[in-house]
Specification:
The chain is of the alpha+beta class. It has 2 domains: 108 residues, Arc Repressor Mutant, subunit A; 248 residues, Penicillin V Acylase, Chain A. The protein contains 13 helices and 14 strands. The strands form 2 sheets. The chain has an 8-stranded mixed sheet with strand order 1-4-5-6-7-8-9-10. Strands 11-2-3-12-13-14 form a 6-stranded antiparallel sheet, covered by helices on one side. The longest helix has 19 residues. The two termini are 16 Å apart. This is Peptidase C45.
Length: 387
C-alpha cells in the first residue's frame, strides 16, 4: 500500500511536514520527470527548473497558500523551490508535445543530468522495439438512480509510467480554515485524485488539444487542489473558469449530494458534460463536440475509445445496482486486452514510453472513503482509506 502522510497547520508548516516525510519519494519523482523532460523536450533538469520558476508569479497570484506549501515541501525534502514547482507544473511543461517523442537533444540533456548528480532511475533495457502511448486513465462514476442504496461513486485507473508507482502517496491535509482533504498524488505534488470532508471529489484524465502549450495557464494539479479546498461542487466548478488552462484535461467532479459532471478543460475553454441517468464515463478523448473540434487526433497506439466504450457498457449493464464490487470489476476489466481498462506493462517498451495502470481508486462519497489498489488493479486488493 502507498504511504499515508497526514499534514497539519499553516501552509509552510504543512509543506515542511510533507517534505520531511516523503524526501525519498520526492527524489523518485524528480528522477521520473527529469528523464521525461529530457526525452520529450530535450531539457535537462536545470533548464526545466528555469521554466518552472516562470510559473512562480502566477502561483503567487492565484494560489499563494500552495506556493508557500511548496516552499515548505522544498525545505523539508532538501530540494529547491524550483524543483517542487517543476513537479507541480509537469503537465504544463509537457503540454503540446506529441506522444512518444524522443527529442534530438535528449541524450545530451540526460548526460548533463548525470554530470550534475540529478536523481536517476536504474533503467531496465527494453526487450524489443515497441510503440508506447501516453494515454492516461479510465473513469467510471455513478450517482442515483444508477447506484445501490443511493450511493455516489467516482472511480478511475491512473495510467502512467509504472516506475512512478514508487512515488505515490496518500496525503491527508488538515488545515484550520478548509475541509479536510485526502488525495492520492505523486510525492512533491499538492494534489491529484481525491475527496474532502465537505463531500467534493475529483478525478483526472489527460486530453490533448491543438492549442496546448502555447501560453502559460492554470496548472491542473493546482486546480485539483483548489477544488478540494472548496465546500461544494458548484464552487469547485466555478474555479475551472478562473483562468484558461495551458494544457488540456478532463476533471470529473462528484458531490455527496448526487452531483456528477465531467469538465473538458482546454486552453479554449471549459465544456461541461453531465451524467446520463446517474452514469458517467470518460477516457482520453473529448466527448463535447466543441472541445473535440480542437483536439489532437488520437494516435494509433491510443486505447481511449475502447476503454471509454467498455466502461460505459459495464456501467449501463449494472445501472441501478452499482456499488463498490461493480466498480472494482470495471477497473479490473481485461476485455479487448491489451487495449483494455486494466492495463499491464509491456516489457518490450522502454520505461519512458511504457504505460500501465499504476493504481486504481474508488471514492465512496457517502462514507468519505477512498478504496485504493496500489498496483495494476487486478493484482492488488482495494484497501479502504478514510479522511
Amino acid at each position: 500500500m502507498f504511504p499515508q502522510i497526514t499534514i497539519t497547520g499553516e501552509p509552510f508548516e504543512r509543506g515542511r511536514q510533507y517534505g520531511v516525510a516523503t524526501a525519498a519519494q520526492v527524489r523518485h519523482s524528480i528522477a521520473s520527470y527529469a528523464r521525461l523532460f529530457a526525452y520529450r523536450r530535450g531539457l535537462d533538469w536545470s533548464a526545466a527548473q528555469h521554466e518552472a520558476l516562470a510559473y512562480a508569479p502566477l502561483l503567487e497570484e492565484i494560489a499563494p497558500d500552495l506556493l508557500d506549501e511548496m516552499r515548505g515541501i522544498a525545505a523539508g525534502a532538501g530540494r529547491t523551490l524550483a524543483e517542487i514547482i517543476a513537479l507541480n507544473v509537469r503537465t504544463e511543461l509537457l503540454a503540446g508535445v506529441g506522444v512518444g517523442v524522443h527529442h534530438p537533444e535528449a541524450t545530451a540533456a540526460l548526460a548533463r543530468n548525470r554530470a550534475a548528480g540529478v536523481p536517476q532511475h536504474v533503467e531496465q533495457p527494453a526487450t524489443a522495439n515497441g510503440a508506447g502511448d501516453d494515454g492516461e486513465c479510465t473513469t467510471a462514476a455513478a450517482a442515483p438512480p444508477a447506484t445501490a442504496n443511493g450511493g455516489v461513486w467516482l472511480a478511475q485507473t491512473w495510467d502512467w509510467q509504472g516506475d512512478q508507482r514508487e512515488a505515490c502517496v496518500l496525503l491527508r491535509i488538515i488545515s484550520p480554515d478548509q475541509p479536510p482533504i485526502l488525495t492520492l498524488t505523486e510525492a512533491g505534488m499538492v494534489a491529484k485524485i481525491g475527496l474532502n470532508g465537505a463531500g467534493v471529489a475529483v478525478g483526472l484524465n489527460l486530453l490533448r488539444s491543438q492549442a496546448d502549450g502555447q501560453r502559460q495557464g492554470m496548472p491542473v494539479h493546482i486546480l485539483l487542489r483548489q477544488m478540494l479546498q472548496t465546500t461544494s461542487v458548484a464552487a469547485a466548478r466555478q474555479l475551472a473558469e478562473r483562468i484558461p488552462a495551458s494544457g488540456s484535461s478532463c476533471i470529473t467532479l462528484a458531490g455527496a449530494g448526487g452531483e456528477l459532471m465531467a469538465l473538458e478543460i482546454t486552453p479554449g475553454g471549459v465544456a461541461e458534460l453531465p451524467a446520463h441517468e446517474g452514469l458517467l464515463a470518460h477516457a482520453n478523448h473529448c466527448l463535447d463536440a466543441g472541445a473535440a473540434a480542437g483536439e489532437c487526433a488520437l494516435e494509433p497506439t491510443s486505447t481511449s475509445r475502447e476503454r471509454y466504450g467498455r466502461a460505459w457498457e459495464l456501467l449501463q449493464a449494472a445501472a441501478g445496482q452499482i456499488d463498490l464490487a461493480v466498480l472494482q470489476r470495471i477497473l479490473r476489466d481485461h476485455e479487448g486486452a491489451p487495449r483494455c481498462i486494466c492495463r499491464h506493462p509491456d516489457p518490450r517498451i522502454a520505461a519512458v514510453d511504457r504505460n500501465e495502470s499504476v493504481c486504481g481508486v474508488i471514492i465512496d462519497l457517502a462514507a468519505q472513503t477512498m478504496h485504493v489498489a496500489a498496483n495494476v488493479p487486478c493484482l492488488a486488493p482495494f484497501v479502504p482509506v478514510s479522511i
